Amino acid sequence: MRIFYAFLVLLSSTISAFAQPDDDLSKLLDESLGEQQQIDYTTATFKTTRLINGHSNEQVAFGVLDLRISHRFGAFNTGAYNFFGLDQATMRMALEYGLTPWLTIGGGRSTYEKTYDGFLKFRIARQSSGKRNMPVSLNYFTSMAVRTLKSTNPAITEFPTSNFFYTHQLLISRKFSESFSLLIAPTLVHRNLVKTASEDHDLFSIGFGGRLKLTRRISINAEYYYQLNRPEGVVDCLSIGFDIETGGHVFQLSFTNAPAMIERGFIHETTGRWDRGDIIGGFCISRNFTLFDPRD
Amino acid sequence: MKSLLFSAGMLMAVFGTTAQDVIQDRTARVKFFSTTPVENIDAVNNEATSFINTKTGDIVFAVLIKSFRFEKALMEEHFNENYMESSKYPKSDFKGKINNLNEVNFQKDGEYAVKVSGNLTMHGVTKPVTADGKITVKGGKVFATSKFKVKLDDYKIERPAVVANKIADTIEVTVEADYEPKK
User: Fold this and answer.
1) pTM for this one?
2) A179 touches chain B (CB under 8 A)
3) What is the interface size between A and B, counted as CB pairs within 8 Å?
4) Is the pLDDT of residue A97 over 90?
């Protein structure tokens, strides 16, 4: 009897040692967090909605209005007389708004050929891990641009729609690590009016881009658009830029051979060449205004 | 025979500890508030998890950093990317004990002032903390709340000079939980 009693005491003390309430709660905590961690969406693949000239996969957040003021100076090789291009400046002013978490609408006006543009950008899929594994983010970008610069060629009869341009772009991106992300962007630009009958109305290109974070708040970006069919005399656009985050806004510094800041311009109308020093400095300031608290 | 019954009873008591004495809340709230003359920043996480063992006084809390919601999307991004580094340190937790458990009766309605001490882990750093809290028992339900201060430097959360006037060096954290028995 006594042995049995001793056995029971031993058993109960063993169990209580195993039970160790603190560890037990820790285990419960880990289990419940494990259940909670459903889909882990990748965020901040790039710092803003643009890589340099072209779009990135980032959408303007729901309820946020993004005021973007972009400048492009003249070419560096215009020399000291033009203060290495800084005497000359063109700009694009734009307002872009996150209508829903997956749809951004925006409109802008560029000095370049007095062009107005409007766009829609849809998020199709988000890179994620956890319960759902999605290796890349997919976004679809579409825009329409209207050139309002008066024609100087009397030989061409212009219709109201002659100066319309359309862009369709699929943005495929992946954040490989905290500091490294890549983007591939198959692009179609349609032009209603072309310079000569032999030029294509539909122009195809593929954009390649990447970013590398130098510090937590500064990244270096590169972007190259390869044209599959190109108008006469046009070269591919290559850009290198820096994103500098300063709290309320992101400052983007860029060096590119394109004076235009919308797709039809920088992809298919760039004539400046890096090897000849046709390098255009520029910057963009993006300021976010939260129109309403998304938690309400 | 008497001793056999006694030990059997003891055995059951030990078994019973883990089963019925644990209460839980899987939608507990953790809020924080930073105030400076320039800017007030608040964030809320409604997906925190908490357990209390009413017999031992053990209390735990955990949150996923990515589940904190801010007024401004950029703040939320910077919070995750620059300050908390949430992909490196995805969660934060508190594991502690109610020091004055003998003054709390989970079976009897009332408000009980409690002192809780334990270890708070966030941004990969674990530090001992002590906080005052209140446990309210009403109609068999247990509600707990506590407010305490966290110094960012203690957890190696860096504030660059540019934002030093916008983010306080000490953040006020509020936790609230409605417990129910763990099934």
Assistant:
1) 0.82
2) no
3) 117
4) yes
